[in-house]
């Protein structure tokens, strides 16, 4: 069976369009806030957040592409694209940790920088959840509901580990190609000697549980249906 573009139903098309419109508007808000800050201060203090948002869009773009395919994807398509998706997925929730950069700075109200960073963090989180929803649905279609939730849980825990690698060890997704030996060594060291790296597993578990509870909440809210008009 070849991979083809799916014909979505009218409600599915409307839901997808609405999601992309809302996410797009939210991303535009973040870009406007960052751009205005540059013009206001003549400094590029938070321009790096634009790059972080771009990286967060990559897993969402990949999952959207997979989600728009008809039928069951062949393993030779799903597995490599899914691996690339998982590699870039931590970049989305990673933006939550950019709150570390929040501190009073001259020339801009503290509340403005708070709103700016929260806007970017929110977009990263929502892109992560939207992307994971697509991927979980693909797994559920192939292996069932339990496997779908097991996949989502594992993906969020791995993403939390990826957030640790990025925030504290300063690795990024490209290091798997440009610096694989050091990356592999640091990962294996933490797996083989967990008691020597308690911070690693503290961040991984705490952020993983937080992300999982947030994801479950969003999924439950998504299942809510507005009452029909009388």
TrEMBL record:
Q: What residue ranges are annotated as transmembrane?
A: 21-40, 46-70, 77-96, 108-129, 149-169, 201-222
InterPro entries associated with the record: DUF1361
Organism, as annotated: Hymenobacter sublimis
Identification of the protein by name: DUF1361 domain-containing protein
**Protein keywords:** Membrane, Transmembrane, Transmembrane helix
